Amino acid sequence: MLHCDTLKEDMQIYLPIAEVSVNAFLLLGLGGIVGILSGMFGVGGGFLMTPLLFFIGIPPAVAVATEANQIVASSFSGVLAHLRRKTVDLKMGVVLLIGGLVGAALGVLLFNYLKSLGQVDLLVKLCYVVFLGVIGGLMFIESLNAIRRAKRNAPTGKRKNHNWIHGLPFKMRFRVSGLYISVIPPLLVGLCVGVLAAIMGVGGGFIMVPAMIYLLGMPTKVVVGTSLFQIIFVTAFTTLLHATTNYTVDMALAVLLLIGGVIGAQIGTRIGTRLKAEQLRVLLALMVLVVCGKLALDLLLMPTELYSLGAAGGH
Amino acid sequence: MMARLFALILFLASPLMAEEVVLGMSQNRIAITANFDGSEILLFGAVKREEQIQSSPPLEVVVAISGPSQPVTVRKKSKKLGIWVNTESVDVDLAPSFYAVATSGPFDEIMSHVEDLRHKVSISRLIRSVGAPMDVQNAQRFSDAVVRIRTDNGLYQMLEGAVDVDQQTLFRTSIKLPANLTEGDYSTRIFLTRGGEVVSHYETTIDVRKVGLERWLFNLSRQQPLAYGFLSLAIAIIAGWGASAAFQFIRQGG
């Protein structure tokens, strides 16, 4: 008992940039849980981790910047597992990445503009609620239908996406995905994800994964690996931007989160391959909806403390 | 004439430095290490005096520790179109990042309002000049909010009765410093009062500094942010690759 207490006390760690003291096991655990989800769904997990870090008392600016760094690690770990199983469409990944980097740069400009207006927190939260709500809802309905079809044993058939996307120029063949489509839609998807990644402080997988499945018509098996591939580079870029402009990347925090995170991601990737694609999507949709609901409640219910403190002068 | 001069001499000579503080501290440097989890500082001292102990009014002690001051922006939310939005903001010029007052009795009784104004001891006297925009009413509420939020976080503490005084000569107290301390010089003031008047005061500083790895990381992040950013990324990528390789190895081995 005594031993347990001393151990617990010893595991408190002071974070040099965040300037708070946190239990190291708590951070390892959070990293692990989010890492498992990240490996399973191919999402960076930022949309879950960032609010969790706020909750344990990490200053929001540090949480957002450090989370970007942690996503690099868990995505890298995840993408290696996917590369081995050849479930990454590198060509598609590069096209998405080009869009993503441009988007991230635009996103940072937009972020700084909103910051000068003093309403950046609100817009970040509204972005979360709108995007998570719409995407979570759509995915949930779609994947429930898919499960119902599968249960009826009817042939699911190939998704037929013969819509406006197929009329666009600059067509390119993506052999791994088995697609022959214009590069414009993937570039735009990458761009949107990049903007959102910079504004919301997330990898953007929760938006990219459904966009790849429903908009680009990519096979679910390659979607996860390909999105992880793009996320690594976009979040690495974001980390550097935060480290050089706001000095808010906390290396000690990142290391603890990513030790848990990379291990979790490996476990998650293995769980993911055992589950059916539809089940995976229902779970992801439910999670997205829960986070959305929580954020919406925060905006709608009267806060217990109306006032908040921040560093003065918008540095 | 003589009587007035005599009174003046008496006034100058009397209580001012008749009683002096001799202070000891458990530590005057606090090192923020990797496993820093707050600290407790023990202050003890004696009252040095040349003459007999006055019996009344009794000697009281007030100890105030103040962290470095920084400007703070206070924002207030109100309901717009059904959601809670930051609508007003006030910049508070200076507010200490930490402030603790320990006293030997109820604050109002042992330090008069005038002395509190002069020495700025109580928490409500701390927060200086609020530069409120013209359209913001009740600017005072914004500085109250700073005190309320920081009190809730354990950063502002009013510890009435936390100082023990023995025989009007020895005193001691301990003050808990929370884990979320800011670096800097923490000014420590000790006031001796009698009947609400300050008869002597003493000032010293406690040095709170990050050391070791904490110091190194913090400096690197400020002085060479690009190198710091790349180092963070390198650690992330190595950790990601390492975990992947380790799991691969385990799977092949098993």
Can you tell me about this structure?
In chain A, 71% of the residues lie in helices and 7% in strands. With 315 residues, chain A is mostly helical. Chain A has one domain. In chain A, the strands form two sheets. In chain A, strands 1-2 form a two-stranded antiparallel sheet. The longest helix of chain A has 32 residues, at 120-151. Residues 1-8 and 155-160 of chain A have low confidence and may be disordered. Chain B is an alpha+beta fold. Chain B folds into two domains: 19-211, Immunoglobulin-like (Sandwich); 224-254. Chain B is built from seven helices and 13 strands. In chain B, the strands form three sheets. Chain B has a six-stranded mixed beta sheet with strand order 2-13-12-4-7-9. In chain B, strands 1-3-11-10 form a four-stranded antiparallel beta sheet, with no helix packed on it. Chain B has a three-stranded antiparallel beta sheet with strand order 5-6-8, with helices on one face. In chain B, helix 6 (212-223) packs across helix 7 (225-253). The mean pLDDT of chain B is 80. Chains A and B meet through strand 1, helix 4, helix 9, helix 10 and helix 11 of A and strand 5, strand 6, helix 5, helix 6 and helix 7 of B.
